[in-house]
Prior knowledge:
alpha+beta; HIT family, subunit A; 5-stranded antiparallel sheet; 5 strands; 32% helix; globular
Amino acid sequence: MTDIFLKIINREIPAYIVYEDSDFLAFLDINPVVPGHTLLIPKVCIDYFYDLDNQTLSNMIICSKKISEGIQKTFHCKKVGTAVIGLDVKHAHMHLIPLNAVEDFNFSKHIQLPQHEMMKICNNIKNNINT
């Protein structure tokens, strides 16, 4: 079975991609809790985050730091929060969320942003990631 993230990796469905290398892909969540809410996924299809091998897990944390720095520069937020939940999509992933208050880390609320705003956020984060 192909999960939705694998379809994004294979470009079968569109996404607002902010970062890609040979092992990872990062893109904006289409149902963000705040603007800039980004998902980081490995290109290997493994359901549970902690089933990733140690090298992939280590590299994913290092990659998340790079993307978080781009989010921080884009939003000038106090912190970038990280969450590993993985209940909705059976593909290991991390949420990277710009935070200015604890309420920003509320997964029970979601916002909708127009396409032009998502594209602007995507381009700004992408341009602020040091490769």
